[in-house]
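> forwarded from #structure-qc
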């Protein structure tokens, strides 16, 4: 009997202790309710509560993603656009989140955020033209949206970590005209680039032709100079050789002339026998 009583008492103690201990992870936000009313925020680690009187509520404290539905907004020129975006947020104040979302209901928080996202998108897009929205400062637009939404998020006890626009699309009635305008603009830019390329190519070609002319002129001048120097050296050499033995010089020149004149067997030359042309032939000794 005593053993049974001790077992029952031990079981009751274990149950009471189990209901008195609350373990909060680092990735969680938690608070303690006493008889349904907020008592205090629980820190990560081991916490204690009074069974049957206290209730611990835990919320996911890690980063969450709210993928909003595509919304129709107007640019500053009243051009309709379909904008698809998403928000990264996390709970930073468990008490505020609990009181502002009807007891910590995630659906209430996301509905509230989605309404605010829709309002911010309309406000920010309404300040910008279609050109600025499509091809302007997209990073600046998303930064403005993030800061604007973050100013109101404290009321929910959450922090807006990031706000991104995934897609901006045009409604069907203006899509064709916008695409045609974008095509025309791109063609204009492409033609300007081609014109600049052609102009640069002509400049490069003209410079290359100029350099070629200069190089050829310098080469011709240098070759004429070298040829003149060579001719001068050759003339000086011939003159020096002639001065050493003028008779022999005349003789060798005559031999070259004979060889060039009678190169072919059919060549005929009519000259006076007493001409200087036969000077050395006439002086040669007759052989039997």
């Amino acid at each position: 009997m005593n053993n049974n009583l001790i077992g029952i008492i031990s079981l009751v103690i274990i149950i009471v202790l189990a209901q008195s201990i609350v373990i909060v992870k680092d990735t969680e936000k938690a608070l303690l309710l006493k008889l349904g009313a907020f008592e205090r925020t629980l820190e990560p680690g081991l916490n204690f509560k009074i069974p049957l009187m206290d209730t611990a509520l835990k919320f996911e404290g890690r980063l969450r993603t709210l993928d909003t539905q595509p919304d129709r907004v107007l640019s500053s020129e009243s051009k309709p656009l379909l904008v698809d975006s998403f928000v990264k947020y996390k709970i930073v104040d468990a008490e505020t989140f609990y009181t502002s979302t009807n007891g910590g209901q995630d659906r209430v928080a996301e509905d509230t955020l989605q309404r605010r996202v829709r309002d911010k998108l309309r406000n920010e897009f309404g300040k910008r033209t279609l050109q600025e929205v499509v091809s302007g400062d997209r990073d600046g637009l998303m930064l403005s949206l993030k800061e604007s939404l973050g100013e109101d998020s404290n009321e929910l006890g959450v922090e807006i970590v990031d706000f991104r626009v995934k897609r901006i699309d045009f409604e069907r009635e203006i899509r064709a005209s916008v695409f045609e305008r974008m095509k025309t603009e791109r063609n204009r830019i492409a033609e300007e680039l081609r014109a600049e390329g052609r102009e640069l190519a002509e400049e490069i070609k003209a410079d290359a032709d100029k350099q070629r002319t200069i190089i050829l002129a310098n080469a011709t001048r240098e070759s004429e100079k070298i040829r003149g120097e060579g001719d001068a050296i050759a003339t000086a050499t011939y003159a020096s050789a002639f001065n050493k033995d003028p008779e022999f010089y005349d003789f060798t020149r005559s031999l070259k002339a004979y060889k060039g004149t009678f190169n072919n067997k059919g060549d005929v030359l009519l000259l006076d026998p007493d001409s200087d042309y036969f000077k050395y032939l006439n002086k040669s000794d007759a052989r039997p």
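QC bot note: The chain has a mean pLDDT of 80. The helical segments are 2-20, 94-100, 106-126, 130-135, 138-153, 172-244, 246-261, 279-283.
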